[in-house]
Amino acid sequence: QVQLVESGVCLVQPGGSLTLSCAASGSIFSINAMGWYCQAPGRKRELVARLVSGGRPNYADSVKGRFTISRDGAKNTEYLRMNSLKPEDTGVYYCNVRLQMIGTFVTNDSWGQGTQVTVSS
């Protein structure tokens, strides 16, 4: 089994910054990609940023230049640095990891529990 544990500050003022982290643990053979998704009130879950192993990060247009996704391979941990936050960034942020577990030959998606981020004055 794989567990994803998210952490980060939940309430921030407009223009502020915060960093979300997501640590994957369990019987992991390899991680192919890591990403962050956001579900705003009344909307479906949408991609915010994604990083494929060996590739370049991909960002939603709304966060380009403000958010940065990174990964610590040794710790199987991904981060989302969020700068210049806006009220429209408010939502539940989910980390996603596409991985291969030990003893298997297929990749699967695992999701974190979600972190409520509220940008408000």
Descriptive tags:
about 60% strand, four-stranded antiparallel β-sheet, mainly beta, about 0% helix, seven-stranded mixed β-sheet, about 120 residues, 11 strands
The pLDDT mean sits at 93
Largest sheet: 7 strands, mixed
Percentage of residues in helical conformation: under 10%
- Quickly give the structural class: mainly beta
Could you spell the SSE succession in H and E letters? Answer: EEEEEEEEEEE
**Alpha-carbon Rg, integer:** 14 Å
How many helix segments?
0
State which percent range the strand residues make up.
over 45%
Span of the ends, CA to CA: 40 Å
Tally the beta strands: 11
- Uncertain residue segments: none
Shape: elongated
Structure, explained:
By secondary structure, the chain is mainly β. Helix content is 0%, strand content 59%. The protein is built from no helices and 11 strands. Strands 2, 4, 5, 6, 9, 10 and 11 form a 7-stranded mixed beta sheet that branches. Strand 5 and strand 6 form a beta hairpin. The radius of gyration is 14 Å and the shape is elongated. The chain starts with a strand and ends with a strand. The model has no long low-confidence stretch (mean pLDDT 93).
Task: Characterize this entry briefly.
The protein is an all-beta fold and 121 residues long. The chain has strands at residues 2-7, 11-12, 18-26, 28-39, 46-52, 58-59, 67-72, 77-82, 91-101, 107-111, 115-119.
